[in-house]
Fold this protein.
Amino acid sequence: MPATQETPAATDRFALPDAGGHFGPYGGVFVPETLMTALAELGAAYTAAKNDPVFQSELRHHLREFAGRPSPLYFAERLTAHCGGAKIYLKREDLLHTGAHKINNALGQALLARRMGKKRVIAETGAGQHGVATAAVCAKFGFECVIYMGAVDMARQALNVFRMRLMGAEVRGVEAGQKTLKEAINEAMRDWVTNVRGTHYILGSALGAHPYPMMVRDFHRVIGVEAKEQILAREGRLPDEIIACVGGGSNAMGIFFEFLEESGVRLTGVEAGGRGLARGDHAARFEGGRLGVLQGCKTYILQNAEGQIELTHSVSAGLDYAAIGPEHAIYRDRGRIDYAHATDDEVLETFQLCSRLEGIIPALESTHALVHAMKRARALPKDKVIVVNLSGRGDKDVNQVQVLLDGRSNK
Ligand SMILES: *Cc1c(COP(=O)(O)O)cnc(C)c1O
């Protein structure tokens, strides 16, 4: 684990990205020519919407009425007592409609698509959480909706496929390659190239070509804005540490952004350590990754010497991706955000512990953040305060965990 570092220079969180979508050497726009115009149009439309008070108040309205914001900041009393050190608070994104933070971004982009006059929405999904959030907002606003999903993921997440179909989405299975998230993104981009006029692509994380990493981050900033207000009301001061899991990096950037300039608040992103850090066994991009380009942007990627994308593994589908959002890479370089990882075994244990001690079944993704938070709580005195972004609920994971635990007890 990296040592605590002070912010080296004043961080102007609004200085990034630049007009070309660069976060220092990371980010940018690496797409086929046919998408350059669409991305430029999207960037312009987003900038206009961002500065339009009517759009912002509409978004606030739907976040409250449809998504259920604000989400509570909850003091995890028994987890805290169990660790015996710093206080642990949970930002309860798990209580939002459709079960995770993803609805913040899906709502924002749906409103933007409507403003741009689009009638059709497409999206990719891995575990199905982003697909479900997208299907929900498409039903709400009356968009035609197509979700691309790897055939392997469709089999693993049959219940989420049924949820999307119930809400009127067409789910298209992707049979290429590993038949998982990466191939689903390729297929969604292919669809977008063909139908770009009437179609908006709701990308699900702080990834891809500009303006997506910035836009998705912005739609999740509400998490940190609320958390800051809530912890000030509750503790009368800022937290000592904020911890969030990092797949593409959207829930983490969402809660971190508001605190980037608060140099006394340590920010830590937790990646998937999987079965350990051997190649193919994890998705800890900052441990085994190198600079490269994948699906629209330059960032840290798990790849072999020839630049072929490596297999990844995590118990949680939402963290199981070979690239990390470009904004994370720059703040890691600057020493402003620290990164750690949690293994599948640690996650399975903490998943059960949080359920038993708090009556909250956390998503496997979010449990990665909890694992690290509990280590930190043990290391810190009782007057310190840690906030964990509980990005989603674990209802979607209970079948998988049951199978894994049964497999262990039969050994
Ligand atoms: C999708 C998902 C993640 C990972 O995505 P980020 O963009 O890194 O936030 C984390 N937690 C939950 C509950 C998810 O559904």
Notes: The first strand starts at residue 22 and ends at 23. Residues 1-8 have pLDDT under 50 and may be disordered.
